[in-house]
UniProtKB/TrEMBL annotation:
Transmembrane segments: none annotated. It comes from Monodon monoceros. It comes from the Eukaryota. Keywords: ATP-binding, Endoplasmic reticulum, Glycoprotein, Nucleotide-binding, Signal. Residues 266-320 form the Torsin-1A C-terminal domain. This is Torsin.
Length: 321
């Protein structure tokens, strides 16, 4: 396992990190309002790109495309003193490939309170929009929530999980906030960040990576330009996706479609070693092998990709310690 790079901050277990999504907002500390690079911070916004890049390099297994895309887009956006529109990213890929993990890192390295910051807002269809019959009320509430929080702090992060389970039409109320107008409803929203997460496109990404492997192409040779069209088409063809027949797609308001590639055996091994390190345990070959042996891989013939990525690694380790 790679040594911890200088400047990286220690993390708890992956499950503990992701569990912060549902934690209550922590009190806002007003005593420190300056970013580590010297610029004035709005709200509790204090980006730490060095820490972010370090953590992504050390802990995000097998995602060279996602890592490069997210860091490049984020740096350009944050360093622009007067962006003309919010940063809008859509993350796509198979379960357990790191989408939620990346959003957790972004919250941690952008806001002092991380996912508990009062300026980081996480939405889940099951929790926040459970009843299809209440769509109109949800649309009104969502618009008011976004507008009100952007009025309070223009540097806000909005995370929308499981977009493939979100009622089509709901997310359309965000369209005025995602474009390049200067103000919407009297609210300055150009410094906000919107991130949408879904498994849609995962099968298409997996197929393209499988074909590359069968053609003996290196994984790192795969380019975003190959994946963007198939992801976009998968979204447009999915009537259960929140972007179904959406003006957000038609008007090209997404700044990037970020692909997460399926994880192979050595990537899962990397996750196991990382998790053991987070638990303060030395690497144990028998534990690593036991977790790998208990992991299901596909396709049936090649046994190449993990069915659950690294999603169940933390829970599986406890069985073999």
């Amino acid at each position: 396992m790679a040594a911890v790079r200088r400047g990286c901050r220690p993390w708890g277990s992956l499950l503990g990190l992701l569990g912060l999504v549902s934690a209550a907002s922590a009190a806002w500390d007003l005593t420190s309002l300056r970013c580590n690079f010297g610029a004035f911070c709005e709200c509790d916004f204090r980006p730490d790109f060095q820490g972010l890049e370090c953590d992504l390099a050390q802990h995000l297994a097998g995602q060279h495309l996602a890592r490069a895309l997210v860091v490049k887009a984020l740096k350009a956006f944050v360093q622009d003193p007067a962006p003309t529109k919010p940063l809008v990213l859509s993350l796509h890929g198979w379960t357990g490939t790191g989408k939620s993990y990346v959003t957790s890192l972004l919250a941690h390295y952008l806001f002092r309170g991380g996912l508990r910051s009062p300026h980081v807002h996480h939405f889940s269809p099951v929790i926040h929009f459970p009843h299809p019959g209440h769509l109109e009320r949800y649309k009104k509430d969502l618009k008011s929530w976004v507008q009100g929080n952007l009025t309070a702090c223009s540097r806000s992060l909005f995370l929308f999980d499981e977009m493939d389970k979100l009622a089509p039409g709901l997310i359309e109320v965000l369209r005025p906030f995602l474009g390049s107008s200067w103000v919407v409803y009297g609210t300055n929203y150009r410094k906000a960040i919107f991130i949408f997460i879904s498994n849609t496109g995962g099968e298409q990404i997996n197929q393209l990576v499988l074909e590359a492997w069968r053609s003996r192409r290196e994984r790192e040779e795969i380019r975003v330009q190959e994946l963007e069209p198939v992801i976009s088409q998968a979204v447009l063809d999915n009537p259960n996706h929140g972007f179904w027949r959406s003006g957000i797609m038609e008007e090209h308001l997404l700044d990037a479609l970020v692909p997460f590639l399926p994880l192979q055996r050595h990537h899962v091994q990397h996750c196991v070693l990382n998790e053991l390190a987070q638990l303060g345990l030395e690497p144990r070959d028998e534990v690593v092998q036991a977790v790998l042996d208990s992991t299901t891989f596909f396709p049936e013939d090649e046994q190449l990709f993990s069915s659950n990525g690294c999603k169940t690694v933390a829970s599986r380790i406890s069985f073999f310690l």
